[in-house]
Structures are given as structure tokens and as C-alpha cells.
Queue: 2 jobs
Job 1
Amino acid sequence: MDKLLSVAPSPHLKSSTGVPGLMFGVVIAMMPVLVLSVIFYGLGAIVVTATAVASCVLFEAIIQKYVLRHKITVSDGSAVVTGILLAFNIPSDLPVFMIILGSLVSIGVGKLTFGGIGNNPFNPALVGRVFLLVSFPVDMTTYPNPTGLNASLAESYIDASSGATPLTLIKEGIKAGKPVSELMTQVPDYADLFFGDMGGSMGEIAGIAIVIGFLYMLVRKIITWHVPVVIVSTIFAFTGILWLINPEQNADPLFHILTGGVLLGAVYMATDYVTSPMTIKGQVIFAVGIAIITVVIRVYGAYPEGISFAILIMNAFVPLINRYVKPKRFGEQLSNG
Amino acid sequence: MLKTFAKGGIHPPENKYSANQPIVSIVPPDTVTIPVTQHIGAPSKVIVNKGDAVKAGQVIAQSEGFISTNIHASVSGKVVKVDSIVDSSGYKRPAVFIKVEGDEWLEGIDTSDALNENISVSDEEIIPKILEAGIVGMGGATFPSHVKLSVPRGKNAEFLVINGVECEPYLTADHQLMMEKGKELITGIQILMRGLRVKNAYVGIENNKKDAIKHLTVLAANHQGIEIVPLQVKYPQGGEKQLIKAILNREVPSGGLPIDVGAVVFNVGTTFAVYEAIQKNKPLIERVLTVTGKSVTKKGNYKVRTGTPMKHVIDAAGGLPEDTGKVISGGPMMGKALNSLEVPVIKGTSGILIIPDEEAHRKPVQPCIRCTKCVQVCPMGLEPYLLQVLSEKSMLERAENEYIMDCIECGSCSYTCPSNRPLLDYIRLGKQQVGKLIRSRKQ
């Protein structure tokens, strides 16, 4: 009797990159942002992130085991990514119970209700964030001022002095009829905006760190450049036009890019595999949509920032985009012409 | 910047352990089993009976219909029986069993190694002689070569493309053939150019075989119309549609053939067989193949008679390693896993790859995370994740509209999927069902 051989259809080779590898790659790409938020917001940033990650992972395991009676899949790392993203989207002095509640909504409602990883139409972290925003509007829109690394936990987390974000300052000011040139003197300069010295949610303040994370994910081939670059350049172009038309009524494009989580959303959230289109062409449409909706919300809507809503709205269009936007097939033109 | 195809593709580890190993002839076994289906198309009709004495090179099964070809005895001896065997496809097929006695060749076959560059046949004789010699595509597709050379009315052959890409990891037989039989290949190319009546031939070779590029470029310099084209290393560049795109920047239309863009593609192994058929009067009864794998002791390139059981070839290469998990006929990306080592080597067997047990099993399947990697690597511009679902759910018309029949089954999607999804398994199933649907519509 011959030795028994394994038989399977080709291919017999398999690349070594698996889902945990990709998710872990995203986690590494988010580390520079975390480091910068700890530098500016101190221990509060750690408390918030640890709470969000722990509760996302725990809720996923508990719901899978006791409610869905399903295999526990937390080892794929996607709940860790959701937890960190949720933390990046909230102020670093948000009370613990709110973070836990937000995590429950992210994982429970945003992800597992739809069938878990791969099946959720909306970005889970953003579902949690928007839930918190509409439930606790005051806590979610007052941001701690940067305290620095040396501040005690009490200073940085429990009773951190809070203020408005630069974007809110400008928005409120324009509404009150003040010219932009005067308002701009009240906000940090561009270098501070880029290097993170401003009020905001944990993850949105650190432009430089986000750019590093973006480059890392490009090099590791976790994402392609299309979605982030198209979002940022479209927002730049759109706000640029508005600014050129009336510079006293509209903030300049660079200010728009560096504030209100544009970079955070473009790099880490709009690129979420599950909730973005399957073709490059579709991703470009998706990105342009996000950019336009963001600017419309900022300039004409009630909220100072808008990228979270813009991403969620465009998430809803993804199945439609996938249905009608197809890759260019090999040999297609010739067969039709 | 070297040329390559535009869309998709992957870079699996090359693992070409047997590169530069000289070609070694393997002594024929005691009994060969020669299947009468070694090609795409109609099975050949057996014309020998039990007890007949045959010589090497003698026709034992005749071409039946246009898309078919001749099958020859690869050894001399006595026909023991004509019976069914399971071949590398996994199906039972008739085969001729020949007990080997001596090594006597049919008269008129030049078995020497002497180079013959002087082409004395007329252009008209080339195609019939290629059919007579039973030549089929030796890259794995086994399409009868005389059919490819017979350009249909209304089509025009402009270029001959020679496939020296050997993009499958592990395999090195074509590489070694280019190194050892370069002059013969150039003569084979000239014969094919005359058969097709074309003025230009391009030989595509990937840049991981720099020595072969250099060697053939020097040899081709004296011959007008033959150009060696170095290509970037990217799988599946050896797919004929990808190769034509890379070299000529022309896209074979969906559902079409290379001739629709004026190209005819031959593998280097096939080209060498054409040389032997025309210049040495020798039918296709032996071929060079790679025997390789991490634990194989004598990894190398071997010249093997058709009908030789895989086991005999593996024994000649040092025997089946202890840790064997899977034995593959062909390369790791498109080859077929064998369930028995009694399966014979046929005209299309490009290699025998032995994979250790720890690499022989698939990883558990996880849900699709819609990472788009399968769409990015598909060289045909398809959406494998979607075709998989459509096939699984038997949504055949939708699958047809999503161009499922364009899939070349290169396996890049399954290779790259981080969730280990069996994309190509389902797409193959869908292709079979859609093919049935299309055929039923025509009736």
C-alpha cells in the first residue's frame, strides 16, 4: 500500500499573510497616533484606549459565546482595531461608562448584528462614535486642552480643563458674523495643528502621526493610496474654491485638512476593508462622495466637523457601487468594439 | 523598465532549487502505460492489440478528428493489454500497457544528439509532420500544435510568440532546455515561423533567467526576425494572454484566442519537440521535466519517456521523501495533486513537485473581509470574491455576465486571500456549470 497522499485542487501555494496579520498591521500603523495623543493628553489617552480595546474585545467574545453561540473570533484582531479607532474618535476625558457603552454599540450593533467580520455595512467604530455623539452631545463635543505627558491622571483625565476644537471656534465665529481673518488668530498655527498641539478627539490631533501610519500601511500593502489621497485632495479642492470665493466667510483649505479628523477618517476609517468598495474605481467614487459630504456638513450643516457622518453615509452606498462599478476586464474593449 | 502584463499578478516565492541542473535521461521502466488521451480534444483511436510487438516511435493510437493527435509507443516491447487507468486528471481513461524489451527505435528516426540546423522540408510539409509526430502544447495545456498552426480562414498570423517564461515556482525544465538546446530551439522557431508564414518571432523570458536571456540573445543575433524579450518576474506571465499583453501590448478579446490579435504562442518545450519532429523525424515520446521539492534528494531536470509511472521518475530522483504530504504533477500554482504514484508521465507533464506534509494542508477558511486583494491580483480583471459567491449560490447567468468564463484558473486569488477562502475551487465549479448552460443554449 502506497503512502496516503493529500489531494486538493490547485493552487498548492498560499501567501503567508492572513487576517490577523493584516489587522495587526493596522494596529501597528495606529501606534504613532497613540503615542502622540499620550504625549499631548497624558495618561487620559491610555485610560480611554485601554478601556475601549478591552471592552470591544470582551463584548465580542461574550456576545459570540453566550448570545450567538458561535465560535469566538477575537483572535482575528478586528475588535482590537475597532477599539483603538473608537478611542481615537472620542475626547480623552470621556467617562469610562460612556466608553464601555460606545464599545457595546460598536461591536454589538455595528458589527455582530450583521453577522460579524466581513458582513457589517457600516464602520463599527463610527457607529459607536455617532451613538455617543447623539447620546452625550456635551461630553462628546468638549475636548480637553492638551496637558502634556507630565500631568497626573487627575489633571489629564478626571478634571481636565476643556475647550472647543479649532474647527468649532471657527464655525461658531463665522455664525456669529466674525471675519475668518480675525478668528484665525485665536486658533493654533498650522505647525501646531500638524504636530498635534490642539484640542480635539484623541486621534484627530496628530497629522504627522497619521501620515506616518499611512505610509506604513502603504509599504506593507495593507491599503492602497487611492481612498486617503482622493478624500484629502477633494476636500482641499472644494474648500479651496469656497475660500477663494470668499476668504472672510470660509476657512482656508489647509485648515480644513488639518482639523476635524479629516486625516484620521481618510487614512484609518474610510479605508476599512469591509465597508469600502471592492474596486479602485469604486473607491475613488466613494472617496469623492465622502469629501463632498464632509465639506457640505462643515460649511452648511449644523456640525463643525463632518467626516464621520460622511463616511457612514457613503458606507451605505457601497453595495450599490460594488454592483455597478466593475474593474476593466482583460480584453473587454476589443470584444465589444 | 522591463516589460510585463498590466493587470494583477503575484510574486510567490520562486524556489527554483533545480535551476542549472543538467538534463539527465531516465532509463525506461519495466512497463509503460501510455494513455490515449494526452491532449485536449478527441481521444486517439488505439490501433495495436494485445501481443503486438512495437518499436519506440511507432504510432499506437491514431488521431481522431481535427482536434486530436497521434500517440506513439515510447519504448520498444510487447503490448501487454489495453485497459483503463486513472491519469493525472483523476478520471479513468484507456491506456496502452507496453512491457519494455530492449530499446529499438522505428527506422528513420535520428536518435543522435547531433545538431541539424538545415531545414530541408517545404513549408507545406510542416503542419502534417507535426500532426504525425503527435506534438501538443507542452506547457501543460496540451492543445494539439498542428491545430494552432492551421490559421483559420479570415484570421491572420502576424507574430510567433515563444513562451520561455516558466513562471510557475519550482519548475526549471524549460530554463535548462534553453541553456542546453538553444541552437535547436532557434531552428525550431524558424520551422514554426515558416509553418505560420510569419516574419517575426518573440521569445519571452523572465528576468530571473538572465543566463538564458543572454545565451539565446547571442544565438538569435544571426537570425533575422527572432527577438529575445526579457520580462519582469510576475506570475502568471506564462499564461498566453498575459504573455501576448506583455510582449506585444495586445489584449486577446474576452472569449477569443491569441490568433484574434495575430499571435500564435508556443512553449519552448513544444518548440524543441517541433525541432526533433522535423529535423530528426522523431515523434513526441519523451520530454524534459523537473523533479523537485524541499526534501527531494536529487532535485533536477530529467528526460523521461511518456508512459513512465511517476514513481519510477521519483525513484530516479532519490525516492519519495519520508515527510511527503502531496505529490503534484506540474507546478504548485496550476499543477494537479496526484492520488497515486502509478499515474504516468504524459506529454504535458512539466514537473513533479513533492511537498512536505506540513505544507500540504489548507488553512481553515475564514469569512471574507472584502480586502479587495483578489480583485487586485486577478490578471483578467475579474472579481473572484463575487464569482465565488455566485458559483456557490448557482447564480449562473449573473456569473456569466461577470465574465466567469474568462478566468484562466491561475490561482492568484486563492493564493493571496488572507481568509484562506477556496475562491478558485468554486469558480471552477461555476465555470463548469456556466459552460453547460452555454452549450445547452446552442442546441
Job 2
Amino acid sequence: MTLTVRIEHRFRGFRLAMEFAIERPGLTALFGPSGSGKSTCINLISGLLKPESGYIEINGKAVFDSASGLNLPARQRRIGYVFQDARLFPHLSVKRNLDFGARRSPEPPSPAERGHVVEMLGIGHLLERRPAGLSGGERQRVALGRALLMKPSLLLLDEPLAALDQARKSEILPHLERLRDAARIPIVLVSHALDDVARLADDIVVVNEGRCVAAGPVEEILSRLDLLALTGQSEPMSVITAEVLHHDVEGGLSELGFNGGRLWVARVEAEPGAQVRLRIAARDVMLALEPPAAISAINLIRGRVAGIASGPGPFCDIRLVCGGAILLARITRRSAERLGLAEGREVIAVIKAVSVNRRARAAPVLPSLPGLTR
Amino acid sequence: MWSAFTPAEIEALMLSLQVAVVAVGAALPPAVAVAFLLARGRFPGRALVDSLVHLPLVLPPVVMGYLLLISFGTRAPLGAWLLENFGIRFAFSWAGAALAAAIITFPFQVRSIRLSIEAIDPGLSQAAETLGAGPLDRFVNITLPLALPGILAGAITAFAASLGEFGAIITFVSNIPGETRTLPLAIYTAIQTPGGETAAARLAALSIALAVTGLVLAEVAAQRVRRLSGR
């Protein structure tokens, strides 16, 4: 379940030199501004483009190696590729589109596996239709199913949400989340939309001007203050993966546990035990030296100052380490001075339940998806 | 209604249909291949192939007939070789008429097929490639079905043009009743014959009816194919 990429390529006066590795199943976002070389990179991985030099390995098997002259054709790489424009075959029904890769796979899916994929993507009612009669979101789901049914060892998604309006997007996002949680293969998502990346990705590779400038878990990379400009965040935020502990039905709240403490947030639509992804804007985090008494905010998280960066105008951004998690707080420089904040200082982060932006990370509805296991 | 026509006229009609069907059928596979090369291929000499394909459009048909005669006549090297080794004789036979019609109408087929191939999103072929389809597989299962409307349109145009071909046929294979006298040649002969005006009118009416029927059938077929190819 690994992908190793080390490639160099020149095109139209642009130089791409990418090096990264994915060592666990899950969703890795290739994230960066338009024209930074993300799509070219996955075209090179897929074999649709040939790198000038380098090395690409999928699950321990080299598919491209300029040193030995190896260049496996795209059709033999078993990489599921979902294009931005879906690229369904217009002359074939949805059913025959889905079967296109499955029929050519050396390891065709069983009827049960096929059923799982169709059910997970909610496309069972579309099977007899033609692509021309589908909505954008439906097309993307069929394209996703078509790629999955070839039983790929790697899934590449090239901005599958970019061409969709918000309604269509929210129609397909849950499917992508379910896929991420159920698939046992690495998924590479190309995206320039921070919201989608924060919601979907486990890991991020930040790409800029043809180079990989940072890589790591999404919680860590998105809270790195030095990457704000590159990740296109107008303001910093913390990303935290937490587990639902229990619900306070009467109060309409849920208590979540993460590796830095516990948080009360507005009711999360997920069963206890499920993982959720939280986003907390730095401007919504207050800092205190002592636990404040009689305050409306219900979340007090202990942490230690790990870094201070000057923000825009009168503000500065404080990076807190809270157990194993990272929290960002944007406060005025005056407050920072008044509190005497410096690296190593113990503080308490005060967070209102209302300012936690929760994104339910859907529980694995189909806990084992044999069709996606390799 | 067939009693209105003489056996010789019916013969000319059947011969015309035979020549046109064989001409279109024989030229179709190479036309698809050449159209695909011109639409998708990047190779040196592409412009040359392109102009060569269009040559029959710009050359006078009589010149085409003359060129065929000096290439495929029984005493011409190529014609003699074909006759000796394969027993194929084009000179003064209906097969020669079909050959002339095929070459004259080849550009119509290539043009139409090429346009329809160029209109296909190359990304579809890429998608098929990532799904495990090799080059021939992609050609047969993606390109060809999507180009079907163009192939059909080209074949129909070529068929109609074959029915009407006169100059190249009369120059190459002459005007032999029952062998090379197709409808246009029969009309020409009737006009040349004193008292043949009514025969000419009948044959002309037959030609018009044939053309109109062809148009209607073409439209029906095109609609059906468009629906099948999901456009």
C-alpha cells in the first residue's frame, strides 16, 4: 500500500521536480495553486505522460525507472484515474461504463464486490442510463465506480469536485469520505480547494511551482504558519481529528476526545466511536494564563506555546502544542505582550463550542469492502 | 411499376447499385485507416498524404480514368500482373467501374470520417487506456463507435457520388451494356440514340428517385446512430 514518486519533467518551459512517498492507505491531497504542476504530476504517475527521468513505485513494484529504461504502459499500471471531467464513454450505458475496466482487469470484481461499489456510490438506479442524461455529480460517481471496479492498486482523483457547484459537491463529498474510510489503497486527490482538502485528506503534499514544498499529516501541515501563503488560507486554522465520546441529547451537544483533551461541540451526527474532523479558526481561540472562572465558553484546553508568528496588522499567531495536537490562536500583539507569551509558556486555550466547525468523518458504513481490498 | 422499364434499363440500375455498393465497401476500411492517421497521427509526410487523398476531388474525372487505364489496363504492368497472378481484370469490367468509383469517392469518406474522429475528445481514449485498454481495443471500442455518424455520412455521400460517376468510368472501362453501362452511362447513351428521349427521361426519373430514397434512408440512419452513440 505504498507509492514512491521521484520524478523530473519539463514541459512548456516549466520544470517539475517532485519527490514524495505515501506509506499508508488513506487519502493524500496534492495541494497547491492552479498551474503548480499537480495534474501533470498525476499524469506522470498514471503513465499517460512519460517523465524525463526518475522513478515511480507502486506497492513495491517499479512502474517507471529511467535508469533501467522501464516504462510500464498506463494500461498495465492498474491505476484508477478519475478525471475532472469524468470522461464517461458517451456511447455506453452507465452499466457498460462501469464494466469497461472490470472486464479488462486481470482480477475482475466478483458480483458481490460490484454490488458493494454500486451501493456505496448510490448509482444503482442509473445503470441503464446514458452519461448524457446524468448530472455532474452522478457522472463523477459513475467515473469513481468505473475506476474502483478495475480493482486498482492506487486511485488518482484529478480535481473531481472542481467542476461541480456547491450542491453537486455536497452530494459527492460523503461518497468520497466513505471511499476513503473503506478503501485499503492509497488515494491521491489533486485539489486547490482548502475546504475539500481539510475535510477529506489524511496527508497533504503541498505543491508549488513544480516542487513539493511540504508533506505530512493534514493536521500538522495546515497548522504550519510558514505555509499559510502557499496553502492559500486567508487566516490560519487548526485541524483536529477527534473521536465521538458521547452525546448530551438534551443540551444538543457532543463530547469529543482528541489527543490533546476533550471538546464539547454542537451535536455531531455520528455514533460514539466514530472519527470526526474538526476545524477551529485561529481567531476563535482565546488564550488565558489561569482557568477563567464564570465564562460562557465551555472548552478549556491546556497547552504550551510552541511558536509565535506575526500576523497581519495588529495580530500575531500563537502555535500551541496540546498533548499530541496543535492549536492555533490569533490574538493581538498587545495581548501577547500583556500575557508575557513566549515559547514554552503554559497557557489555556478557550474555545466556544459554537466556533468549532465540525465535519463528520463518516463512520465506515461498509466496514469491509472486499472489492477495494488488495 | 418495373414493367415501365426495359430489361436493359433494369440491368443498368442493378449494375449501378452493384458498382456503388462494392466501391463504398472496398474503400471504407482504408478510408477509416487513413482518416484515423490524418486525425490523430503525427508523422512526417502527413501533409503529402492529405493532399494525395484529396487529389481525386480536384482532378478531372476523365484524367482519373486515363490514369487508371494506363495503370490497370491489361497491357499496363500493374494490370498485367494482377491478371496473371490473381486473375483480376479491371479493364472493361464492372470491377473496373467499381475501382474508379471507389477512388473518386475516397476523399468524401476520408473527410467525413476524419472530421468525426477529430470531434472525439482524446481524453476518452486516455480514460480507456487507464482502464486497461490497448491501442486496438481503444480504436475498436471507443473511437470507431463514436465516429460511426461520420462513417455513415461518408459512406452515404460516397454511395451517391458512385451512382453518379460518369467520366472516370467511361474513360477507364468504356460503355459496355450489362458490364459497365451504369445509370449515367445509360442516360448518356439514350440521349445519343435518335428517339431515345423518353428512355432518357425514364432513367433520369429513376436516378432522381434513387437519390431521394438515399437521402431519406441516410437521415433515418443518422438519427438512429446519433441516439446509439449518446450524442
